[in-house]
Structures are given as C-alpha cells and as structure tokens.
Write a structure and sequence with these properties.
The protein has one domain: Diaminopimelate Epimerase, Chain A, domain 1 (Roll). 50% of the residues lie in helices and 14% in strands. The chain has eight helices and four strands; from the N terminus they run αααβααββαααβ.
Length: 166
C-alpha cells in the first residue's frame, strides 16, 4: 500500500496536483484570509502541497504528520497569543488537516477542525476546489470569532498568501 502511494506521489507532478488553484484563486483565498483575520485574534495559514517526498510516504508519513511538521517549520506556533492555525492540503492524496496552536486548542475541539476538513474533501471530490477552501475559511472564521475576538491592534503575524509547495 505504501509503495503504491509513494509511486502516486512520485508520478504526479506538483503542477498537476495544484492545477485547481491558479493565481486568481490564490488571490481570492489570500483576500479571504485577510478579511477573516480582521474579525478574530487568530492567525490563519494555508499550505497547499502537490506530492510529498516518496521516501516520507514509504516511511509511512501521514498527511497529519506532514501538517505537524509544516506547523513547526512555518512557525505557525510562534504567534504572540498562541493563536496560529494551519490548514494543510495534501493534494495527491486529497487529504486535509487542520493544526491549531495550544491557545486555540483549549477552546476548539479537534472534532470541529476535522469536520471542516471532511467538508472540504467532499467539495474537492465534487470538483469544487475554490468554494471548498473559501467555505472552510468562513467556517474557521466563525469558530475563531466566537472564541477569540480581535484584540487591540490585532497584528498580522503570519503571511496571508497561501504557501504552495511543489
């Protein structure tokens, strides 16, 4: 099973996996994140990845483990209020993971993040990539606005532009 998955990651060029997210769609997502962060004290970061390294796949790395790795590498944990949220989209496997910092995890259950991920995956299977991501951003915004109202100054600590990993 891991071998077939690794071959899929090896044989799927990143630009093919990322085809549903051309620059104009990334622009819309960036704007949605910018608007979202005006309504809460959280920091939202999106990372889109085509294929993972086949060696990592062969070693059994899951999308969740990769999301945790990126959460650290991208310093999403390094916000003043421990309020970072990473939405990781692994497009070859069509897996989505949301990792939230400890400040947010105290109030938002993982099951709520998982439900958002599964709705995005359903939209993706229907070919509705842009709407799937934008709806997820709206869902995340509602959760963060409810639990983390904006603070004075409300600094923008993480890039709003989605990271594209090819």
């Amino acid at each position: 099973m891991q071998l077939l998955r690794a071959l899929k990651h090896l044989c799927t060029p990143g630009f093919v996996a990322l085809k549903p997210f051309p620059a104009p769609v990334l622009d819309k997502i960036e704007q949605a994140i910018r608007e979202s962060e005006k309504t809460h004290a959280g920091e939202l970061r999106l990372a889109f990845e085509g294929g993972m390294e086949p060696i990592d796949v062969l070693r059994g790395m899951s999308a969740r483990e990769r999301a945790l790795q990126l959460f650290s590498h991208l310093c999403v944990w390094d916000t003043e209020g421990n309020s970072g949220v990473l939405v990781y989209l692994q497009l070859v496997d069509t897996r989505i993971e949301i990792v939230a910092d400890r400040g947010i995890n105290r109030r938002v259950e993982q099951s709520e993040w998982d439900a958002i991920c599964r709705r995005m995956e359903t939209a993706f299977r229907a070919g509705d990539f842009e709407a799937g991501v934008l709806t997820a951003i709206d869902d995340i915004t509602r959760l963060l606005s409810m639990h983390f109202p904006p603070c004075a100054g409300n600094p923008d600590e993480l890039p709003d532009r989605p990271l594209v990993i090819i």
